């Protein structure tokens, strides 16, 4: 007759699974909850998407016709695809490159450090992984860091302040 699980085994089963890319990337055997059936895995031979490009050069120049055209193209892209790629947006390439470096640096941190910014129930900002509450069996390979942003000149440091308040002043450069 099978033996009932011990207290230790029961506690292990109840512990939520967390996706930690910094750990899983070096493992050969992954927890089965993160392995999706073949029929649900991403297809390697998918046709390339025709991603709509939204060129903001004319819009940013103040040309009203270019602004109307950009608005029209954005609307069509949202209705047909649900996404688009913005070009000639005027954002400094170094800023974009630095953002990618800081994102990589954050997600390479040990889990205990990332969890200092753990998203709290009912909140939209913070770190989250595995989304075990949303998926019943197969879990996504996903980590996110979300925070508010405002272009309001009175709120220029929302991201920096959020990261410093939740993770410490050593994360000021991330904001």
TrEMBL record:
It comes from the Eukaryota. Keywords: Iron, Metal-binding. One of its GO terms (molecular function) is metal ion binding. Residues 51-158 form the Non-haem dioxygenase N-terminal domain. Pfam families: DIOX_N (PF14226). This is Gibberellin 20 oxidase 1-like. It comes from Trifolium medium. The lineage of its organism: Eukaryota, Viridiplantae, Streptophyta, Embryophyta, Tracheophyta.
């Amino acid at each position: 007759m099978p033996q009932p699980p011990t207290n230790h085994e029961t506690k292990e089963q109840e512990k939520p699974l967390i996706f930690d890319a910094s750990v899983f990337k070096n493992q050969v055997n992954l927890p089965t909850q993160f392995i999706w059936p073949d029929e649900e895995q991403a297809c390697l031979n998918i046709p390339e998407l025709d991603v709509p490009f939204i060129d903001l050069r004319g819009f940013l120049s103040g040309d009203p016709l270019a602004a109307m055209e950009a608005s029209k193209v954005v609307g069509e892209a949202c209705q047909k695809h649900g996404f688009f790629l913005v070009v000639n947006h005027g954002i400094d390439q170094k800023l974009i490159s630095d953002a990618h470096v800081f994102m990589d640096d954050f997600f390479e941190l040990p889990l205990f450090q990332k969890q200092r910014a753990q998203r709290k129930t009912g909140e939209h900002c913070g770190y989250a992984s595995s989304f075990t509450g949303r998926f019943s069996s197969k879990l996504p390979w996903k980590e996110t860091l979300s925070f508010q942003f405002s272009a309001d000149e009175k709120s220029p440091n929302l991201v920096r302040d959020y990261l410093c308040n939740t993770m410490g002043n050593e994360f000021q450069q991330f904001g």
